[in-house]
Write a structure and sequence with these properties.
- The structure holds 2 protein chains of 2 kinds.
- By secondary structure, chain A is an all-beta fold.
- Chain A is 0% helix and 50% strand.
- Chain A contains no helices and 11 strands.
- In chain A, the strands form 2 sheets. In chain A, strands 2, 4, 5, 6, 9, 10 and 11 form a 7-stranded mixed β-sheet that branches. In chain A, strands 1-3-8-7 form a 4-stranded antiparallel β-sheet, with no helix packed on it.
- Chain B is mainly β.
- The chains are: A mainly beta, B mainly beta.
- At the A-B interface, strand 4 and strand 5 of A face strand 3, strand 7 and strand 8 of B.
């Protein structure tokens, strides 16, 4: 059974940092690209970024470029989202999602999400 | 404002057929596959349609997708109350090097 479990969310002050983790099981993690997607209150889904299956390529949305970094540890079946210089507009539920090889950017697997609230 | 344009809302009565459109450009829908996601309140958004018109196992055949040029659409036939949700199209953009989501369409079953 496929599972993606995010953790690390919480309340953080503007300008501070937070690191989210996403632990995967039930599929071959090392062959899947992994994405982070968020949904802010009252807004739609927004793609945050992704990391290639082997970590060799990463891309980010303009809204987080230079502040957020995605990394992965295939030995631990875990992907991370390091969020620095957080702003109020980063408040959202953050989801990790798995993207199979050659799938056409298809997000097959999703975690349950973790809430990040940026507030003083 | 999203690069992929969806109507913010749609509605129908039980049993009806509803269509949700998604309009993009040559660098996204025009050159890449379109996937659709369904998000029920308070839950993650699982894959609903992939590769324009394929359904993951477990998705009823009431749901179908299509693509023509730089636009795509999701059709739901035999509308049911449990279909009330937010629907998103998504496609990779070759120019922006980003995965784009449409703004989402809130479907109400009257």
């Amino acid at each position: 059974q496929v599972q993606l479990v995010e953790s690390g969310g919480g309340v953080v002050q503007p300008g501070r940092s937070l690191r989210l983790s996403c632990a995967a099981s039930g599929f071959t993690f090392s062959t899947h690209a992994m994405h982070w997607v968020r949904r802010a209150p009252g807004k739609g889904l927004e793609w945050v970024g992704f990391i290639w299956y082997d970590g060799s390529e990463k891309h980010y949305a303009d809204s987080v470029k230079g502040r957020f970094t995605i990394s992965r540890d295939n030995s631990k079946n875990t992907v991370y989202l390091q969020m620095n210089s957080l702003k109020a507009e980063d408040t959202a539920v953050y989801y990790c999602a798995g993207d199979p090889p050659n799938s056409g950017w298809r997000l097959d697997y999703w975690g349950q999400g973790t809430l990040v609230t940026v507030s003083s | 404002q999203s690069v992929l344009t969806q109507p913010p809302s749609a509605s129908g009565t039980p049993g009806q057929r509803v269509t949700i459109s998604c309009s993009g450009s040559s660098s996204n829908i025009g050159s890449n596959t379109v996937n659709w996601y369904q998000q029920l309140p308070g839950t993650a958004p699982p894959l609903l349609i992939y590769g324009h018109n394929q359904r993951p196992s477990g998705v009823p055949d009431r749901f179908s997708g299509s693509k023509s040029g730089t636009s795509a659409s999701l059709a739901i036939s035999g509308l049911q109350s449990e279909d009330e949700a937010d629907y998103y199209c998504a496609a990779w953009d070759d120019s922006l090097k980003t995965l784009l989501f449409g703004g989402g369409t809130k479907l109400t079953v009257l």
